Amino acid sequence: MPFVRSSDAVTHEIHGARFVSYATPASGSKELAAWRGEIPPGTRAPAHTVSREEILHVLVGELALTLDGRTERVGAGDTVIVNAGSTLRVENPTDHTAITWVTTSVGLTAELADGTLITPPWAN
Q1: Disulfide check for 23: which of 6, 29, 94, 103 has CB 3.0–4.6 Å away?
Q2: What is the rounded distance in angstroms from the CA atom of residue 63 to the CA atom of residue 71?
């Protein structure tokens, strides 16, 4: 269905963050996935290598993102392009929840440093 109401979004939690999924094949999307990320204060997600490009836009707050070993602080209005094969770590060193909007192509997987492969339901 082309209209996804906020009440229809599905929430997932992993590594201390919430992923509120709006666009997936289950909601009618054929090629793209999109979700709102809610990253609480003090969250430090593990580094992971993504299989597909992600576009991450910060809506509220500030994050410290490490992309292929380079750490940058990004805030509301900033966008980060995470190319396929890049390694990303997300951290919220502030006292407030940061909110992001992320888009990728359906089929994204993420590999942790120990080799664990995650197939996030908010992107598949």
Answers
A1: 29
A2: 10
Residues 60 and 3: their CA atoms lie apart, in Å, by 24
Are 82 and 72 a contacting pair, CB within 8 Å? no
Where do the structural domains in the chain lie, given as residue ranges? Answer: 6-123
Q: How many residues does the chain have?
A: 124
Domain 6-123 class? Answer: mainly beta
- Cα dihedral: 17, 31, 60, 14 (round 10): 0
- Adjacent-strand bridge partners of 5: none
The 10s digit of each residue's pLDDT in 10-36 is 999 999 999 999 999 999 999 999 999
- The C-alpha atoms of residue 74 and residue 58 are separated, in whole angstroms, by 7
Per residue in 38-57, pLDDT (tens digit) is: 999 999 999 999 999 999 99
> What pLDDT is attached to residue 2?
84
CB hemisphere CA count around 12 (13 angstroms): 13
Residue whose structure tokens are 């990253």: 39
pTM tops 0.90: yes
